[in-house]
Structures are given as C-alpha cells and as structure tokens.
Amino acid sequence: MSGALSAVGRVLRESRRFVVAAHERPDGDAVGSTLALGRVIETLGGRAVLYNADPVPEPYRFLHGADQVVSAVEAEFEVLFVLDCSEPARLGPGGAELVARAPMVVALDHHLTSRSLGQLMVADPGAAATGVLLWRVFRAAGIEIDRLAAEALYVAVLTDTGSFRHSNTDQEALALAAALVGLGVDPARVAREVYATAPGGLELMGRVLSTLTLHLDGRLALVRATDDMFRRTDTVAADLEGFIEFPRSVAGVEVAALLRPLDGRTVKVSLRSNGRVNVAALAEKYGGGGHHNAAGLSLDLDPAAAEALIEAEVEGSLGAPAASRSGAGSPAR
Ligand code: 5GP
Ligand code: MN
Fold first, then answer.
1. Domain end position, chosen among 152, 177, 194
2. Which of 16, 69, 280, 321 is the most exposed place for a label (fewest CB within 10 A)?
C-alpha cells in the first residue's frame, strides 16, 4: 500500500497536465477530493482540469476551485485521476471515453464495491473517505498542503462520516480533521456552509418524510421524493442530502431506502443500513455499489416495482443465516 502511495506522489510531482474526475452527482467527498487534489496540483506547478458530469452542489460551492469544474475535457493531458469511484461508468455518460483517452489512469477509491482500474490504484474500504486516501498520498510523498486544499479535504471527511457520526469515523478520520484545523480550517464556518438548508429545503423535508412507510415488521423504512415535490418547493435532488438519516434512525429499522425519479423510467435508490444488512452487496446485484452501510443503485422500473424489489431483497438479506452475511459489522460507513 505505501508503495502505491509514494508512486501516486511521484506521478503528482513528475507530471504536468492532469484531469481530476470523480463520480457523477458528486457528494461532499467527491467534490472535496477533486478540489483538494486540484489545489495541490496547482501549488506543485501543474495544471489540472477538474471534471464532473454534474454541477457542484450548492453546499460545496464555497470551496476554492468549485467554479472551475467542467463537464467536458478538450485539452490533452497526461494523467487522469479517478476519485471516489473506480468504474468508468460512475464518471457519467462521458466517463468511458475519458478513461479510454487517458495516457495514464490513477484511481483512489474507498468503496467496498471498488474495481481494479488504471495503472495505479489506491483502494481501501477501511478509509472513511477518499479524502483520507489523498491525505495518505500527500504524507507519503511529503507534499504540504495549504488552507484551501485543507478546507476541501475537511469537507470530504466531514460529509462522508456524516459529521463524524457514522461507523467509519475512526482515529485516522479524526486525526486528519485535527491536522486540517491546524492548517487553518474553521470547522464552524465549514459546517455552516455545508449544512445550510436551501430556502425550500425544510418544506421538501416535510413532504419527503411524510411519505414514510415501514415494512418487514418495522425493519425496512421507505421514503420517497417526487418531481412534483421538487417543483413545488423550488429544490433539487441534492437538497435531499441527509434526509435518509431520519427513516434510518427509527427504532427497529435495519435498512432505510429513499427513492426518487432519475429520468423517465429510472428510479434512483439510496440505501442505508444499521449494520446487519450489507447494502453494498444488495446494490451491486443491480449494477450499483457503495459501502456496507451506505449504498445506491438505479432501477429501470416504475416506483412501485422498485419498492417491491427493495423489500424482497431486504427481506432476503435479513432472513439469511448470520454466516452468509458477509462483512456484517465491518467498519464501513
Ligand atoms: P447516496 O445514497 O448518498 O447517494 O450514496 C451512498 C453511497 O453509495 C456513496 O458512497 C455513493 O458513492 C454510493 N452510490 C450511490 N449510488 C451509486 C451507484 O449507482 N453506483 C455505485 N457504484 N455506487 C453508488
Ligand atoms: Mn466517498
């Protein structure tokens, strides 16, 4: 592992033109990691095109470089960094082409469902966030980071640990946060920016949470968002961030799911587990992925059929004998 970390450090020092990309519909870890690495490349004297298939969500736009993220790469480059995922398709519609075009691919991923990708890869599901993997690289390579990069890394670890509450919150995540505060990050300011609610956000939350239903003797909780809810509250899907923690927190619930329309006939499903069910394995069966306790997938089904499928799958996982529940209790988020 440490060999790979130093090798990534060498690539950072020895190359000049980079593309830094992360998964589509980026979360705080994807955005924070992209911007932190972009800033580090900038301070090392290189040039980085920051790529994402989707816009940077409002809560992360205060970060340095957020306004530089583009959804098309025209210029030639030497190295493509793939962050917080490891399948070209997770980069969005242009992902496969971008990976195919890259003279060199370096992937950093902490998902349980990560795949082997590129010439160099750092994959560790034991890392709380992709930001933690970047920190390991910077330390192994002796690369010092400034406050702007530190702020982006802080957002990565803050959001992927659910504000240091999820089971992936470990000594390394907290030590990283402390080190970043030492570099000038103001935790209260970042928390205000990241967790500010959109004007229609609470109304959206009310509407979404009022759809709560319990299934399987209260062990599965479902909530739904509809396009109509977004329209009426002038919000977007990114404003759903964190809502799934409420159904997850209901006493007796093992799995929570949030369903929303993606486009046309596709339903996007977010899954959270309280430990017994490996939702990454469930999601992977249908082309999705994630962590033991947090995963997602897309289903080309109508909402009712999607719900029935999730219920059947969760029922199957809950009914399975303990020995076949691979990874139960693992420290993933
Ligand atoms: P969320 O429910 O917050 O969107 O995602 C939870 C976790 O599952 C995140 O780590 C995210 O990267 C992962 N995830 C969500 N949707 C997908 C998907 O469609 N495919 C894969 N591979 N991972 C996903
Ligand atoms: Mn992540």
1. 194
2. 321
Question: Model's pTM, two decimal places?
Answer: 0.93
- For ligand 1, pick from 33, 111, 246, 271 the residue to mutate: most ligand atoms within 8 Å of CB: 111
Residue 320, pLDDT score? 53
Give me the numbers of helices (H) and strands (E) for the chain, helices first please: 12, 11
The per-residue pLDDT for 263 is: 85
- Domain count along the chain: 2
Same domain membership, residue 296 and residue 324: yes
- Structural domain for 321, as ranges: 203-331
**Cβ(295) to ligand 1 under 6 A?**
yes
Identify which ligand lies nearest to the alpha carbon of 32. Answer: 2
User: What percent of the chain is predicted at pLDDT more than 70?
Assistant: 95
Q: Is 219 in the pocket of ligand 1 (CB under 6 A)?
A: no
Kindly tell me if the per-residue pLDDT of 331 is higher than 50: no
pLDDT for 110 beyond 80: yes
Please answer whether residues 280 and 290 qualify as being in contact, where contact means their C-beta atoms are separated by less than 8 angstroms: yes
* Amino acid 207: pLDDT: 98
CA 129 / ligand 2 centre spacing (Å):
5
